[in-house]
Amino acid sequence: MWGGRDRVRAGRRAPPTYRAAAEGARGEAGRAGADASVQLPAVRRVWAGIGQAVESAAIAAAGLVVCALVMLAVWGVDQGFDGDPLLQWRIAADAWLLGHGVDLGITPGREAVIAVGAEQVGQSFVVTLGAWGIGLLTLWLHWRSGRRLASLPILDASIAAVLGAAATGAVGLVAGMSAQHATAAPNLVQSALLPAAVALVGMGAALLAAHGHDWLAAAARGLTLEAQWLRTIRAALRTGLGATAGVLGVGALLVGVGLLLRFTDGLLLLESLGVTHVGVVVVFLVQLALAPVAIVWGASWAIGPGFMVGAGSSVSPLGTDLGPVPALPLLAAIDPGAEPWMSVVVALPVLAAVVVGAFARQSTLAGTPERPVHWWELVVAALGGAVLAGALLGLAAMLSTGAAGPGRLGETGPDAVLVAAWGALEIGVGLLLGMLAGGRGSAALAVERGGSSIREVFGFGTSRGAADAAGGAGSGEAADAPAEWREDEAGTQEVAPVSVERDAAAPSGVDEDASADADDDAATATATDADRDADTDPAQRGAAHPEPEGDHRPR
């Protein structure tokens, strides 16, 4: 009977316990989590790209809205909202596109020819001089977006940056298509590409600033470069960027000083335009948009090559030859004459580079007693920084060159090649002088041995001959030591090193047994010495081993 009941119970399936159910739930959750972890990077990548595209499109649209609001104020105050409102929108879109380097083709109408009374005014021309103040605003806002993207993985951040640039290009294309007119038409291809390039440069610069150190270290490991070369490359990059900023700061200083000294001439030019109060604000905003171009022209003037304001003109520290120029108050900073003291201005970029080189010597190239700075590191850092600064200044000069109007105004701006060449030369000299002067009293150069090989000079390790020479020098120093030092060293015995690692690796129980055995051995050695002394001295032998008083034999 009981056996049949047991068989029935054995045939039934036991319900799952709580532990088994929990383990099953954890298994299903783990499989779901694995699937989610596989899908998470793709979802994050999609949402990051969508968010950056929306943000970039909003940045571009905000720039267009600001330009449109300015034109709306002019239209309402000066014209009483009379005329075509689309004309104001087209002017705003043209201004925004010019701020991103887009070429604008202009064909004056018959009304302009009749008003001026010259047939040459009716000829078509292209404005290629960019009002980069608007573009720098877009660049700065996208740089801030790039700093936020830097917290994402590099693949996700790169995809988001590309999608953001594409959204900016789409807004630019729409603005270019809406601004097409018979009298003024922006280039549609450039309308799509150049705003996108500005946005991409801003986000790329932010990503490079956040991960540049890691990327440079990874490139150094991939190319098997030594630490000294990595330090030198980092110093060259920093000094190049710093020297470029310094020279552009010199240009801004010169433009500000010129406007201050010739403030009256600027007011006369503004009055000659005959603008209203709102027109004064618009002229001020136009000059703000052209301020980056004026700063680059000032830097080119300080470097030496100068710039042109129309074909056949020349503005440089050595002389000024100007023709008719546009009635823009910003151009009042140009001194029509050449003073003898202007040639001294060429030293300002060199002084700026000296300051940058001294700071680099005190920070990046300071060196340590274990890793001192060699002379070749200073030369390579100065040369690399000069080449980088020259290239950046040449690029800035190229972007600040173009056509500002018809006729002779088709050629304005500095010569990019001359600016790059002279800038690299002056900055290189200044950086080298600053690095040499900045190391005194804080970090001296490493002492080069007379027999240094080419491999040692360029930091590729120590040659065999130099190692032998160093060993021979050590032997010579030992031979020249005083006699008592040599005797002490000869009498000194070499102590065998204690294996700390083996003791540290042993278990705690083994350590206790070993210490106990050591104590027993020490006690045994002490007793042996006492017995030896007792054998030699009877008195001590009796004191060490007293006779028993009674019979202590076991019964």
UniProtKB/TrEMBL annotation:
Keywords: Membrane, Transmembrane, Transmembrane helix
InterPro entries linked: DUF6350 (IPR045931)
Region (Disordered): 1-26, 466-555
Biased composition (Low complexity): 466-482
Compositional bias (Acidic residues): 510-522
Sequence intervals crossing the membrane: 54-77, 125-143, 155-176, 188-210, 240-261, 340-361, 373-399, 419-439
Domain of life the protein comes from: Bacteria
Any matching Pfam family: DUF6350
Basic and acidic residues bias locations: 544-555
Protein name per Swiss-Prot or TrEMBL: Uncharacterized protein
Organism per entry: Agrococcus carbonis
